[in-house]
Amino acid sequence: MNDLDTFSALLAPEGQSLLAELRDHDPADELAAATRLRREHPAPLVSAALGQARLRQRAVAKFGADARLMYFTPNGVEQSTRATVAAHRAERLAALGVRTLADLCCGIGGDAIALARAGIRVLAVDRDPLACAAARANAEALGLAELIEVRCADVTEVDTAGYDAVFVDPARRSKARGGRIFDPEAYSPPLSWAVEAARKAPVAALKIAPGVPHDALPEDAETEWISDGGDVKEAVVWFGAAQGGAGRITPGGRRATLLPAGDSLLGAGLPDPEPGPVGDWLYEPDGAVIRAHLVADVARRIDGRLIDPTIAYLTADRLVETPYATAYAITDVLPFHVKKLKALLREREVGIAVIKKRGSAVEPEELRKKLKLGGGRKSCTIFLTRVAGAPSMLLGHPAADAP
Question: What are the beta bridge partners of residue 353?
Answer without folding.
Answer: 380
